[in-house]
Amino acid sequence: MSAIVLFDGECNFCDSSVQFIIKRDAERYFHFASLQSDVGRKLTKEYNVPDDMDSMMLVEDGKAYFKSAAALRISRHLSRRWNMLYALVIVPSPIRDLFYDFIARNRYKWFGKKEDHCMLPSPDVRKRFL
What's a Pfam family in this record (predicted)? Predict the structure, then answer.
């Protein structure tokens, strides 16, 4: 079984987050697609996601998760103690999402947008992108 991480393909911070996940996903549990891709648009439509959704999205076990819920569910499958971050699920989601939204709102200002070039992943990693 696997899950799909949908991310903003124009965001440097989001791209770095995907690279972070790939390096710590020893089981190769996650596949990836940008929200702007055909797969991303298909999944957001399938899960009735509003057009103005500005969040990482995780599709796992037939359910969509957003914002901090997506990030914490992703952390459960990471190695090297990163999976312990899932314990933050005890914090109420409105509080967690305040922090998530603050970073999301400022991500372009702090980290910039992608230029016309992008990293060419290895063939093994490329298979994980949809």
Answer: DCC1-like
User: Based on the structure, what is the number of domains in the chain?
Assistant: 1
Residues 6 or more apart whose Cβ sits within 8 Å of residue 42? none
Q: Which domain holds residue 105?
A: 3-126
* Sheet of strand 63-66, all strands in order from the earlier edge strand to the far edge: 30-34, 3-7, 57-60, 63-66
CA–CA gap between residue 104 and residue 46 (Å, rounded): 23
In whole angstroms, give the CA distance from residue 37 to residue 28: 21
42 token code pair: 């298909």
User: Would you say the pTM of this structure is higher than 0.90?
Assistant: no
